[in-house]
Amino acid sequence: MKHYGIRALLGAAALATMTAGATPALAEYPVETVRLITHSSPGGGMDVFLREIGKHLGPIMGVNFVVENVTGSGGAAAMAEVVNGAKDGSVFYGATPTHIITSLLSAPPVTYEDLDPVVNFFNDPQTVYVLADSPYNTLNDVVDAAKANPGGVVVAVSTPGSLDRQVMEEFQAVTGTSMVVLTHDGGGDAVLSVLNGTAQVGVSEIAELRGQLDAKAVRILATYTENRVPGIGDVPTAREQGIDLVVSKFRGLVGAKDLPPEVIAAWEDGVAKLMEDPEFRKWYEAEGLENAYMTQAEARVARDEFVTSLKAFFEKFDIK
Amino acid sequence: MDGISYALTAVTTPSVLLAAAGGVLWGILGGALPGLSPSIAMALLLPFTFDMTPLAAIVMLTGIYIGAEYGGSIPAILIRTPGTNAAAATVIDGYAMHQQGRGGEALGLSLVAGTIAGLVGLICLVLLTAPLSALALYFTPPAYFALAIMGLSVIAALSEGSLVKGLIMGIIGLMISTIGTDPLSGVTRFTFGGAELLGGIEYIFVMLGVFAVAELMSKMAEGDDEEGITKSVARVKLPGVKKLWALRGALGIGTGVGIIEGPIPGAGGTVAAFLSYNEAKRWSKTPEQFGHGAEEGVVAPEAANNAVTSSALIPTLTFGIPGSNSMAVLLGGLLIHGIQPGPMLLSTRPDLVYGLFGGLFLSNMFMLIFGLLLLGPAVWLVNRPKPYLTASIFMIVLSGVYSINQSLFDFWVVLLSGVLGYGMKLLKFPVLPLILGVVLGYMIEANYRRSLLLTNGEHRVFFENPLSLGLLLCAGLIIGLAVVSEIRRLRHGRRATQE
Amino acid sequence: MRNVTLVVSAALFALAVGYWISADSISESRLAGAVGADGFPKVLGVALGVLSLILAGQTLFESYIVPARDKAPVQEEAQDASSAWRGHLRAFGLIAIGIAYVLLLPYLGYMVAGGLMLGAVATYAGLRPSLATLLFAVCGGLCFYLIFVKLLQIPLPAGFWPGLVN
């Protein structure tokens, strides 16, 4: 109730594009029906994403995918569902940073440590935006303003535990500035705060800004990504502007530990093919998602790095 | 005018008619089952809208929303169980009317008031979109804080005679609202290390406990009294024009408050219902009847939460920003069909926007029709013998709640709230302040601290922001008036005892 | 009644103290802003403490100016009290059934646990055990199952039954 937000629901646009390329099936997958668990409710970001995967990946892997919504407790219930399920590749969890944050901040019976990454799909780019008539044109304008007037620049971010909040706290440390980071109950409220002038700068994912971008009500100054993001005009990354910050808001799939190797191999091959599927590509690029495909080995490393940085952040700012 | 022709086309399209009818019917059912919030009722049908035309899909989703906001009042009146958060204010006088054998009248009032308010809200949505969407932008953290304080100040007036007891319950409600994740830092508070409490306690759990479970406990305590009041329930009775005219004040207050609260993200139907209940009481010629079956006490909150269903659409459509869970689901439904709500929507898809207006009109009409059809069976159901009824109510309360988090833990919260509510009843602690505290606590704390963050700790901001100042003055007035009447009551009581 | 109110005031005061202490142990975060995560809870704790004292004071004051009217019907009051206590016990019996239901739910599943609860509460509320009770429990359990699990798709626990099939 308290933390509603469109972020949870975005990504949905896709289901309108309803086609499934009939690619010949790969090696036989051990089970016929695979359950994909998400902690978001029907229509939520992860829910739609998993349904989209089911639609396009089903024919590729020769598997029937079913999406199940196990909501509540910030993913704790969904994680338990996966760990308590069969270990034959028939149940997976659609993972975002949320499940790691939940694991670190509370002590759920099942944590990310009881799970193992399978593959990674995307990175959800975090962007810095301002009102269209804002005096700021680059990230450095924001830094200069903050230096000239410590505590005078207000940045709107979504929820307190979110990555966009985290990156703005890091931003101050990296640039040696002091700004006000204003948290909200969800991404939508944060956009409103920028629109009504409470905050001069906002941080958000692209999907959440789409309506305002189309209306040219806001401008994106920078993205916290490795490479420039297509589809939003030619916006330089933060790194290009001399501020070395990259956020990986990953979207991947995790499963129980010690799954059969042929299951993992089937996923790695299947998803590699999926990412090249033109229909699927059209969908995720329209969503502003960045292809961040990783095999299990790569995804494990990425997760460990993520956990380390998150722990360091929580420790630095005394969040328990 | 193009708009009118779009709307006319929409209301004559069979698929849209069917979507509105189906949505409203489902919504009333979902709203009437406690624990199933309007947003969950919408989310449950969301997958079925994927294959519909975009217009039919959004008409269906808004139809569910409208139906659910109305449906919540049915169990509120008949079994002292708010079906939705926004129906909590209806419980007090609606159930009192039911106990007096006027349940059928209360249901009729709620239905007609809801329909009228919904239609007036719709007219405002069409004519006043721009000013109402500007209203959403006026609300900055200090204004939100002041709005919540004004909501809380109602405690003073709703404490049923004991201000101290009312304040105590208000504080306990606020304490319950602090459980979960801290709104600013993200630190966890009072969760005792568990993940179940991380997201805080849902309002509806507390409401179901203190209203429904506590009432069942009282019934048990009364013993095998076979002469249940339910026997005397009259048939559903719609208010006539004369009656509506007599209730025009409450109806107007409810509708007005609802239309203004709707577009303000985060305020929503619950706050609107409570505020309008209080205002209706203040402006009533017979305020002493409130709490004892006042018709105005049903009309005002029910008008408010149905007026909200129209005006709450404004920020979703004009900014692409949902103000509540229900609106978030609606937004999801729009995006699935490749429609991006936002400032451009009206110019890019006028067919859809005006079609939706037409669909909203249909939904309100269907609400009236289905309401009439369903109220008969609902009244029949609550006229069953007491043991069956008690068992079924308890079962309903311990079923729908599971839909929110799919966690057994939530049942414990409901049962515990029931014990709390029963204790409060025995000791004559008022219930509404507790509910207000639970509903408003988060809004108060989060926005107070956000405001101070913006001003570097300066409290001046609350008095410099004109909106905040105005709302705080209103709050002061509400409290002042209540304190004066409390003092008068005490004096009067003392004189009576001395004589 | 007055004594009860005094006891309640004391309990509320204890709650206020406990809550304040618990608020004091909330970890301090540098991100909390001018008012920390413990600020609002502490204010609430103090407010509840003060209000509970006022409630106690008010009660004592009232008993001072309105001296226990007449001490004659003490016996009657005692009788009332004992019947009231019987009532409270009956009320808490309902909660006990609720607790049993929630405990059994994960094992017996929604349909069976629900049917049992419907039967138990109906009996407890005065229905004589009969075929009708049984019928109510069985049909009720089935109806609720159909409405909440099948129609509304709420994944209420299925219990151990599916395990028997495999």
* SS field, number of helical segments of chain C: 5
Overall pLDDT confidence of chain C:
85
Basic shape of chain C = flat
Looking across the biggest beta sheet of chain B, what order are the strands in? 1-2
Counting DSSP E segments of at least 2 residues, the number of strands of chain B comes to: 2
Rg of chain B from C-alpha positions?
22 Å
Order of helices and strands of chain B: HHHHHHHHHHEEHHHHHHHHHHHHHHH
**Can you give the helix content of chain B as a percent range?**
over 70%
The largest inter-chain interface, given as chain pair and residues per side, is: B-C, 67 and 70 residues
Q: What percent strand of chain C?
A: under 5%
The sequence of SSEs of chain C as H and E is HHHHH
Helix content of chain C: over 70%
The total number of structural domains of chain C is 2
Pfam families (chain C): TctB
Keywords (chain C): Membrane, Transmembrane, Transmembrane helix
Organism (chain C): Albidovulum sediminis
Protein name (chain C): Tripartite tricarboxylate transporter TctB family protein
Outline the structure in words.
The complex is a heterotrimer of chains A (about 325), B (about 500) and C (about 170). By secondary structure, chain A is α/β, with parallel strands linked by helices. Chain A has 2 domains: about 5-125 and about 250-315, 3-Layer(aba) Sandwich (D-Maltodextrin-Binding Protein, domain 2); about 125-225, 3-Layer(aba) Sandwich (D-Maltodextrin-Binding Protein, domain 2), CATH 3.40.190.10. Chain A is about 40% helix and about 20% strand. Chain A is built from 10 helices and 11 strands. Chain A has helices spanning about 45-60, 75-85, 95-105, 140-150, 165-175, 185-195, 205-215, 260-275, 280-285, 295-315, and strands at about 35-40, 65-70, 90-95, 115-125, 125-130, 155, 180, 200-205, 220-225, 250-255, 290-295. In chain A, the strands form 2 sheets. Chain A has a 6-stranded mixed beta sheet, sandwiched between helices. In chain A, strand 1, helix 1 (about 45-60) and strand 2 form a beta-alpha-beta unit. In chain A, helix 1 (about 45-60) packs across helix 8. Chain A starts with about 30 loop residues before the first strand and ends with a helix. Mean pLDDT of chain A is about 80; it is low at about 1-25. Chain B has about 500 residues and is an all-alpha fold. Helices cover about 75% and strands about 0% of the residues of chain B. Chain B has a two-stranded antiparallel ribbon with strand order 1-2. Chain C is mainly α and about 170 residues long. Chain C has 2 domains: about 1-25 and about 35-70; about 85-160, no CATH class. Chain C has helices at about 1-25, 40-65, 75-125, 130-150, 160-165. In chain C, helix 1 runs antiparallel to helix 2 (about 40-65) and helix 3 (about 75-125) packs across helix 4 (about 130-150). At the A-B interface, helix 6 and helix 7 of A face helix 3, helix 8, strand 1, helix 17 and helix 23 of B.
